[in-house]
């Protein structure tokens, strides 16, 4: 189907690219209306991957009995991010891996953390 669209002309090629870019995650953080969102400065930053997804991963250990959630690609104050996440999740089981600039959260909290980061504009 897409092969036929590409061979018909440049307008079809542009439409195909628009379809491909429509589902990307970074578009969910854009403003929905004409009013620009307020700019908030955090003491930390979580950068997206090259495919524009959030760097939140699930790590399974000990023969599938221990689930961990990893947040990677963090720059800035890890302690402030840990405190904000603990407040949001209502959980104090968040460890900091300062050498790797990562947070390790007990349990599979991937979906909750991705939604929280998206709400905050990351």
TrEMBL record:
One of its GO terms (molecular function) is structural constituent of ribosome. This is Large ribosomal subunit protein mL49. It is found in: Mitochondrion. It comes from the Eukaryota. The keyword Transferase does not apply. Belongs to the mitochondrion-specific ribosomal protein mL49 family. GO terms for cellular component: mitochondrial large ribosomal subunit. The keyword rRNA-binding does not apply. Keywords: Mitochondrion, Ribonucleoprotein, Ribosomal protein. Pfam families: Img2. Its main location: mitochondrion. GO terms for biological process: translation. It comes from Coemansia biformis.
